[in-house]
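Memo subject: From amino acid sequence to discrete backbone structure tokens
Keywords: amino acid chain, backbone geometry, structure tokens, three-dimensional fold.
Body of memo: The sequence and its backbone structure tokens, given next.
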Amino acid sequence: MLEITLHDGPGRLGKYEGAKTPSTLKTDDSLPLLKDEPMPYNVPKALAEWSVNQTVENARKTGENGIAVIHGSKYPDLRVKCAQELEELGNSVFMVANSEELMRRPMDLVEMMVKLREALNPNSAIYFPFTDVSFIPLLAYLGVDLFSEDSCEFYAKLNTMLTPTTRYDTESYVIYEMEQEELVAYNKNSMDFVLREVRENIKNGTLRNLVEERCCTSPEAMTALRILDRDHPDFLERYTQMY
């Protein structure tokens, strides 16, 4: 399980398997990705519920713990149901399905992440794969603990450079001349930098400042932050220091 050492708002500084979090997570034999039942984001509720039930049943039949996938498509109540039933089976690392879709839907992203963070054990880790680097501070502020480097390789294949604030098409913006392997490494370094930046800001109680700064670079992220402030003040205040 995740050991939480410090809070800055809902953002958490912690330790997981010897690594400081928020951080990246690599799946391996010691922490396998449990079999799930994938489902698109925008589907009728009956299909989403079937996906949840099958995912939980697959995890139950497997009889082992690992990275459990939270399904439920666009329905927050089904996401919570899936997460809680998977947690009851002994899992403590939860991957959020349809992460790309959620980043394009600010209201859904906020509602989903707030409800999941409140429903899960505080020592359970939320894993948000395929993340846009500029979204990492906001997601960490929402209580996400683990991220994936998959997006670094994907964007490199699209000749796209990732920076802490934006993405650059390397054919239009020739900032550096790099081979694809070098671009992958550059993108991974950008993600590593942002995660280090997030951890240091949590230590110094300045994560909110970083989130405000980075959200200015994305209309979706800024919209999500304003929705969070408007609709979930109690969630934010629960761990915010009073001066």
Q: What stands out?
A: The domain at 3-148+218-237 is CATH 3.20.20.105 (TIM Barrel). The chain has ten helices and ten strands.
